[in-house]
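Re: that chain you flagged

S.,

Sorry for the slow reply, it's been a week of failed gels. I finally had a moment to sit down with the sequence you sent. For the record, here it is as I used it:
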Amino acid sequence: MSRVSSTPSANSTARALLQRLRDHGIETVFGVVGREAASILFDEVPGLDFVLTRHEFTAGVAADVLARITGKPQACWATLGPGMTNLSTGVATSILDRSPVIALAAQSESHDIFPNDTHQCLDSVAVMRPMTKYAAELQRPNEITDLVDSAIGAAMTEPVGPSFLSLPVDLLGADVDPSLQHPPARTPERPIGAVAKDWEDAAAQAAELLRGAEHPVLVVGASAIRSGAVPAIRALAERLRIPVITTYIAKGVLPHGHELNYGAVTGYMDGILSFPALETMFGSVDLILTLGYDYAEDLRPSMWQRGIEKKTVRVSPTVNPIPRVYQPDVDVVADVLSFVEYLDAASTDVSAKTPHDISALRDRIAEFLADPETYADGMRVHQVMDAMNTVMSESAEDGEGTIVSDIGFFRHYGVLFARADQPFGFLTSAGCSSFGYGIPAAIGAQLARPGQPTFLIAGDGGFHSNSADLETIARLNLPIVTVVVNNDTNGLIELYQNLGHKRSHQPAVKFTGVDFTELARANGVEAVKAASREELLAALRKGVGLGRPFLIEVPVTYDFQTGGFGALAV
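Prediction finished late last night. Pasting the structure tokens below so you have them in one place:
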């Protein structure tokens, strides 16, 4: 099998690839390099940095979150074969969580691509195509710039998502024709969506429904943020006194303490609170306007179908992909910002509404968070979230920091309780929800917001599934404060065992103990344990003040009474 042996020139495909990525505004490539290092060093183009991660999944998720927060395409890299398959979970995250990621992977030499027969050779495009917006393999070096342009354009089209390029290692080292002229790189400022020809007629119907509604609500999803509609949504909500409810990842559309911020919805909220939360949020609502609603964000129509009969308006830059599940009375296929501006102008004579009363739910949440009890068997997650909120409010200007949640039962406490004072101020993977999401998501968040605090909450199961990249956090000296809530158990799975069987099966969910403080220190991260609210508050404050990575291990126990979870809306 031949290998690249000559030194790549200044006109190499690799350099043209990196230059076009840089032309599109990409400044960072996350990843793990293999033998294609003979063809590409990643220092060929000024202003483009390579961030080495311990695992390709980390690279994919870090790019996903950096893209989500910045609203711009971001890139990740893997070597051929197993590197590409490791990266695929990060790609799956960005398709289900809607981030414009440009995923790149090396491939065998162009003359030796025999998938499943050549060493480390798989049909990369066939693997990636079902979970990407665009997937292609480089056939001729001179086409690399065009392939990057196609990948960017597809990734920035709603619903935004990843594109993938497979790059044979010999072609990476080959020369492109320097005399070829390419048009300037055109990166959309915002995602491009569908616009129905009759959208204004549908918007007029929505305005009439709003005019006659007594208790309307705005249910906001992430594409409303991507459209730049947040200021307009806030202005409309405040002028007409319309409450705002969000999906997991759209928390922060209104600040945490805003009177019209009615919170984010999770199907676990009734069980966690032992309270009819969904009924309180939606029971008396007569009109729901879903702005940028996306079924992948895990807010199901069944969650709002409580109480009185309702009218629904769907506003989205995509054609409704789930008409069997969501059948709105009015469907507006248009840019969310354009719709909100239209609705604002069409409702100048509409009187302010009377927001429906959710004071009982707010009282229950406040009671939960204020829980003063000291538990012998470990803290409760709501106490942990309250401590994180407290220190966030102390340490962040105007509360503008980021709380990142890995995947597990605790995540639903974050959806309910985590402070978010800006769009994407609370980050989790609503769509893919893969264990180990937390560390790479926190890396992406801190790189996107270097002047703001980043807090990560992770369970012992998910955290240790990807804990090798603690070293990446330490190497980059990112001031991420990590809280590992540890019960040596996959807690959410234990809940499902109890729901289905009225008992748990410990071999399927129980781990032996891991000292996460020692693990952190072994990776160059200072760490402490905290067993009470007072110890946790002190540790969080210390972590924020250090200006470098810090980890806190907190023993926890879940008190779930399965009866409260019997009708999970998930």
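What I noticed first: The chain has three domains: 13-173, 199-358, 370-565.

Talk soon,
D.
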